[in-house]
């Protein structure tokens, strides 16, 4: 004759929710800090980079092909693709 309720099912539920929260936190940390599921970037070819049209900044607006940058002198080129 016990007047205390049975907390067995309640305890099992708390453990399940707790383990699920820990699993979700670990998964979130791993996905946020690694590139496991991201697609691998492609390397840009020289022909593709030469054909890109560039615009100058400032008061004098001028448009030219990127290949003009390294026609006479060498150039360091960094191609960045922004999302969107």
Descriptive labels:
84 residues, mainly alpha, 2 domains, two-stranded antiparallel sheet, 2 strands
Helix/strand layout:
Layout: H1 8-33, H2 46-50, E1 53-55, E2 63-65
Antiparallel strand pairs: 1-2
Short summary of the structure?
It contains 2 helices and 2 strands. It is mostly helical.
Radius of gyration: 29 Å
Mean residue pLDDT: 83
The count of domains is: 2
pLDDT < 50 runs, ≥5 residues: none
Helices and strands, in N-to-C order? Answer: HHEE
Q: What's the N-to-C terminus distance?
A: 68 Å
**Would you tell me the structural class of the helices and strands?**
mainly alpha
- What percent of the residues sit in helical stretches (DSSP H or I)? 25-40%
Determine the strand fraction and express it as a percent band.
5-15%
Count of DSSP-assigned helices? 2
Shape: rod-shaped
The largest pleated sheet is described as: 2 strands, antiparallel
Give structural notes.
With 84 residues, the chain is mainly alpha-helical. Helices cover 37% and strands 7% of the residues. It folds into two domains: 7-37; 40-83, no CATH class. Strands 1-2 form a two-stranded antiparallel sheet. A hairpin with a 7-residue loop joins strand 1 (53-55) and strand 2. It is rod-shaped and about 90 Å long. The relative contact order is 0.08. The model has no long low-confidence stretch (mean pLDDT 83). The chain crosses the membrane at residues 12-33. This is Redox-regulatory protein FAM213A. Keywords: Membrane, Transmembrane, Transmembrane helix.
């Amino acid at each position: 004759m016990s007047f205390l309720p049975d907390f067995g099912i309640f305890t099992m539920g708390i453990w399940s929710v707790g383990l699920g929260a820990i699993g979700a936190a670990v998964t979130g940390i791993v996905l946020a800090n690694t590139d496991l599921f991201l697609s691998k970037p492609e390397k840009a070819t020289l022909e593709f980079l030469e054909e890109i049209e560039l615009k100058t900044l400032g008061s004098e607006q001028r448009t030219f092909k990127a290949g003009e940058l390294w026609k006479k002198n060498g150039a360091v080129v960094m191609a960045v693709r922004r999302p969107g």
